[in-house]
Queue: 2 jobs
Job 1
Amino acid sequence: MKKLMAGLCLVAGVLTGAQASEGGFAWDKAPNRTNDVVALQNGAKLFVNYCLNCHSAAFMRFNRLKDIGLSDQQIKDNLLFTTDKVGETMRAAIDPKQAKDWFGANPPDLTVISRSRAGHGGTGADYLYTYLRSYYRDDTKATGWNNMVFPSVAMPNPLWELQGERKPLYEVTSEHGHEVHVFKGWEQVKPGTMSPLAFDQATGDLVSYLQWMAEPAQNTRVRVGVWVMIFLGVFTFIAWRLNAAFWKDVK
């Protein structure tokens, strides 16, 4: 019995840890704008200005941004801060040794981050969309920031100037004789340079760009796949009718 109880406690601990790793926080549905060129261009601008300082996208070249309507000259004039060549990959400006000293680990590469963060709460885009909008001030942390989706996250809020500062609001309830703090919403402490609606719009553009960057050919692949399925459907119908015509006199 003692071994059984110990095993159940271990399983409960693992499940609790898994829930804590995602903050026990419901993910919001991210907008899908991977077909919206204007949104992708804005997302690329936000990525270069607010993410590329610390995070690389080592499997994406700047000149691939021509697929979302940008010219080489536009890329050079507006997006090249870490290199002087359009054909170079998106490398972070930060020194890896300094990053490890500051954050405890090197910031992860973001090329396929939107595909690697999918879970039972939703898609990787849903996770990123919720994560970037769930920072709050926490003076007990070294960076001064915490996150509802990723508690005790090492990365400070990269978009705090745009979003401002917020704090979570909780409702205290009783469950099985214990106090439970239920998240109820946010209170804006200090305004940012964007309104909440504009910030959500910008975050959606950034997440859509991260989705597109993870597989730039995805939309083309889907379009080609639809036409292939239509062709196969038409061909199957023609083959069925030809078969009926060839065998109609055979008894």
Job 2
Amino acid sequence: MRNLPPLHALRVFEVAAQTDSYADAAAELGVTHGAVSRQMAVLETWLGQKLFVKDGRRMVATPAARLFAAEIGLSFDRLVVAAEACGQPGARRIVRVSAPTSFAMRWLIPRLGRFHAGHPDTEVVVTTVSTLFEELRGGVDVTIRRGPGRDRLLPQHRVVPVLDDVDTLIMSPTLFARQPVLKPSDIQGHTLFATETRPGDWRDWLEAAGVHHLAGLPRQRFDHFFVTRQAIEDGLGIGIGPLPMLEMDVANGRLMTPLADIRVVRTGYVAIVGRESDEGGSVNRFVEWLVGERPTTILAQVQPSSL
């Protein structure tokens, strides 16, 4: 008989170590703060050492505990692979995906019908986060975030590029008809919208457009891009938006790119999966599909002359 540690306590511990918060772990697991605390006490007693130390009002994992949590995560990944291999033939697989809200709404979800058509045995469940820099959490199979090189920071994970990101000026066709932007200096007199989660968007575009002297123009700032995009679509102002994530809005005429040749290359989006994920299974099939959906060129833009 193996002298195994308490398995339920290990599952709770993995989430608590990832979140550095008993309260966040309790919320993610759907239990009480006290239940998490009790499970951690059980595991610490079994191991004979402390796994968490108090830091202000939070319980923070020790360096040894973080290493232990990484190994546990790999073991759980192997369990998932083994369970899928022994699962019922033809059983429906679930792939849980975490993605930034705008990426999910404007790019991923509109394409999921194609994935399901080709993989009827797999269901994709999407949860969204409002910041690109939120730490990885447990409970998902694929995490989509912006930024290459994350594999250096996440040695237990595999990082796969899935979408390039290029910024350009966007506005509504209705506003263009009233007050066209035919050259960079025409942005004067427009309301400029900016987004906290996409810092430097206007600064970099103005530099690329050769009108950095207009950097002092007043701007209205929103916390998330999906709010900014909606205000622009409503014709309330102009902004900087990412392509090809907005190709659907450009194609159906909700938005246009009046100066599409002026572009700023941004850090693209990547899919992050555990290195021990199901090779050849549903998770990797989904990631391969994401890569296949990646456009080889940025879409042809709607030019002002076509309106």
